[in-house]
């Protein structure tokens, strides 16, 4: 699942290949043409826009990267600036020095000098004295001496939202090895939600990789597919400088509000991608072929109908920034969400509470001290055509990333304290996206973006209708959590035959969150006896926990500490026996054997569960430090009961 969920109406749009539904598509084609005309009219009427001033030569390759003025101050943020800055106070000159001295109280901002710190204090004091920064801060339900609203539901202790972690889906070094750095590889993300795993995988290709790398990225949801196509193109489009492009892609992906040049650039990307009607498109299918910075290209094959809804959304002019922000806030601040937000904050260190609060208020992913007042355009990739917020209630950009690396690299690249967690994430993403852009520039990487029901796509590939990918060609197929919807057998039958028989390391990947839904006793948090045993064991291991636990038990389910403890139980609980019961009930082994495949006893791509090493065998339990646990459980909200399955050739 990407950071943003699909629109409520997304499922109404069919996603079968165009050949089947020609009639409705011809009509949709007219709508699409009207829309393209509208974009062009908008563009030509806006004489100030750089779109019109540069559009005449936009397809000509230029030797020098153009500057689009995409950052909050007209240029990308290269380092953490002194926090003594505000564009609101026109009279005050902005300090452009590097921020080096952290505010000793909150550690969220840094200054170049004590002078700047003193000057800035009147503006910083309210944030620095916020109740969230108090160690003693308590959730609203504790202060009001009532049970939290979520305590009544049966799904109390299950993470409400979850994004699968980022990982290198190819993992050449652990598989094919150095001797195979000159081979071609084909990879399929059959139901990808965002570009994270794609970025991680391409970034991990060795810089001396000589082969051709082709990736098929598919999702049946038109909004998700097209949003990611735009983000990918924004990142790899050769025109802006790489520094600008990466910053832009970060905001497209995570910020609800954009600066004026960013919004204009979004419009321009739309025009480049969807404006290519001449020659490339037949009556019923949408085809795009886009330049990247390197040898490779981005192709997209969709139906015209599939492109219609996202394009309406991305080019909508029916709502204002105020409406968009109001709609967003109504969802974030709805009364039924107040307790779950407090519960999330109660797991965090004080400075992280404040960092999340700021991100929630501004909707912009930047370091804490950056003035976001220039972000004045709704990010139309995140709002429906009517301006409804399509993000989740507790939208957490750290989900799915490796929060430990985020903090380490934040410190390395920009000397940011881990307190400014979004500052760390901002610079971490910049470095990841930058490497991605350079890898695509230097290597031969091609992307094919499609929007089909994965089962129909699998059949289409077998029939050879998707160019570049024909038949059994894939070295890896990542089916994400499809097995939770269509059973393992079906997944194997669809994708097993498409694995490359010539590659002994070809793998089919599946993940599951739902495996225990019909076996609630599989989890410690739902199993009082197991929970009690774990409590006792913990108390024995950490004597100081005894007193804390007594306090917690007195408060019962009102106690944030007790809630945290119950939530963490599954991280250290061996559910392997019941998981294998589940696999047997799904006929996993025999279904896999029918295609010459078997479930790997030791994984080669991603560990079997969170917190265990890659080569862990059955019944291994996580062995992680306290801070790793905080990063995984509190910052990234992982679901410790999630499982990762890998199928490889039987030997
Ligand atoms: Zn402070
Ligand atoms: Zn300064």
Automatic annotation (TrEMBL):
<keyword id="KW-0479">Metal-binding</keyword>
<keyword id="KW-0862">Zinc</keyword>
<dbReference type="Pfam" id="PF01753">
    <property type="entry name" value="zf-MYND"/>
</dbReference>
<keyword id="KW-0863">Zinc-finger</keyword>
<dbReference type="Pfam" id="PF14737">
    <property type="entry name" value="DUF4470"/>
</dbReference>
<protein>
    <recommendedName>
        <fullName>MYND-type domain-containing protein</fullName>
    </recommendedName>
</protein>
<dbReference type="InterPro" id="IPR002893">
    <property type="entry name" value="Znf_MYND"/>
</dbReference>
<feature type="region of interest" description="Disordered">
    <location>
        <begin position="43"/>
        <end position="68"/>
    </location>
</feature>
<dbReference type="InterPro" id="IPR027974">
    <property type="entry name" value="DUF4470"/>
</dbReference>
<dbReference type="GO" id="GO:0008270">
    <property type="term" value="F:zinc ion binding"/>
</dbReference>
<feature type="domain" description="MYND-type">
    <location>
        <begin position="79"/>
        <end position="128"/>
    </location>
</feature>
């Amino acid at each position: 699942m990407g950071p943003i969920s699909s629109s409520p109406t997304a499922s109404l749009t069919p996603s079968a290949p165009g050949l089947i539904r020609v009639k409705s598509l011809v009509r949709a084609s007219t709508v699409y043409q009207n829309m393209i005309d509208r974009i062009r009219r908008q563009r030509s009427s806006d004489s100030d826009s750089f779109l019109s001033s540069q559009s005449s030569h936009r397809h000509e390759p230029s030797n020098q990267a153009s500057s689009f003025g995409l950052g909050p101050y007209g240029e990308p943020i290269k380092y953490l600036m002194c926090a003594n800055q505000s564009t609101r106070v026109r009279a005050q000159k902005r300090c452009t020095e590097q921020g080096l001295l952290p505010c000793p109280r909150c550690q969220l901002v840094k200054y170049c000098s004590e002078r700047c710190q003193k000057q800035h204090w009147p503006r910083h004091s309210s944030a620095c004295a916020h109740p969230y920064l108090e160690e003693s801060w308590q959730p609203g339900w504790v202060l009001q001496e009532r049970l939290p609203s979520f305590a009544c539901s049966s799904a109390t202790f299950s993470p409400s939202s979850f994004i699968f972690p980022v990982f290198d889906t190819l993992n050449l070094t652990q598989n094919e090895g150095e001797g195979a750095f000159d081979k071609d590889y084909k990879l399929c993300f059959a139901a990808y939600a965002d570009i994270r795993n794609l970025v991680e995988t391409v970034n991990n290709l060795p810089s001396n990789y000589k082969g051709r790398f082709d990736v098929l990225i598919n999702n049946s949801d038109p909004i998700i597919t097209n949003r990611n196509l735009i983000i990918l193109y924004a990142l790899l489009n050769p025109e802006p400088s790489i520094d600008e492009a990466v910053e832009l892609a970060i905001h497209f992906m995570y910020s609800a509000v954009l600066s004026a040049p960013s919004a204009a650039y979004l419009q321009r990307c739309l025009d480049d991608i969807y404006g290519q009607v001449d020659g490339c498109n037949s009556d019923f299918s949408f085809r795009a072929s886009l330049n990247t910075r390197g040898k490779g290209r981005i192709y997209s094959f969709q139906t015209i109908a599939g492109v219609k809804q996202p394009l309406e959304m991305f080019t909508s002019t029916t709502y204002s920034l105020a409406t968009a922000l109001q709609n967003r806030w109504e969802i974030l601040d709805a009364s039924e969400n107040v307790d779950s937000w407090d519960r999330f904050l109660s797991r965090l260190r004080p400075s992280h509470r404040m960092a999340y609060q700021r991100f929630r208020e501004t909707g912009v992913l930047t370091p804490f001290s950056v003035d976001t007042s220039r972000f004045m355009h709704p990010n139309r990739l995140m709002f429906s055509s009517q301006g409804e917020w399509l993000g989740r209630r507790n939208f957490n950009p750290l989900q799915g990333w490796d929060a430990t690396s985020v903090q380490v690299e934040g410190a390395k690249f920009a000397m940011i304290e881990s307190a400014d967690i979004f500052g760390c994430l901002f610079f971490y993403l910049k470095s990841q996206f930058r490497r991605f852009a350079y890898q695509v520039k230097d290597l031969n990487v091609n992307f094919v973006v499609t929007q089909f029901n994965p089962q129909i796509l699998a059949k289409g590939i077998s029939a050879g209708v998707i160019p570049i990918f024909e038949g059994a060609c894939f070295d890896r197929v990542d089916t994400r959590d499809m097995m939770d919807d269509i059973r393992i057998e079906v997944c194997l039958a669809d994708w097993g035959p498409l694995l490359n028989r010539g590659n002994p390391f070809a793998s089919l990947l599946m993940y599951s969150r739902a495996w225990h839904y019909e076996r609630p006793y599989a989890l410690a948090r739902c199993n009082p006896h197991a929970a009690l045993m774990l409590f006792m064991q913990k108390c024995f291991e950490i004597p100081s926990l005894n007193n804390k636990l007594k306090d917690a038990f007195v408060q019962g389910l009102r106690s944030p500490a007790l809630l945290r403890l119950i939530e963490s139980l599954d991280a250290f609980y061996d559910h392997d026996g019941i998981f294998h019961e589940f696999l047997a009930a799904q006929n996993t082994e025999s279904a896999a054997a029918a295609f010459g495949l078997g479930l790997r006893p030791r994984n080669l791509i991603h560990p079997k569960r969170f917190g265990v090493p890659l080569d862990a065998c059955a019944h291994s339990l996580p062995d992680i430090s306290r801070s790793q646990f905080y990063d995984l459980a509190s910052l990234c909200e992982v679901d410790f009961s999630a499982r990762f399955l890998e199928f490889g050739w039987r030997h």
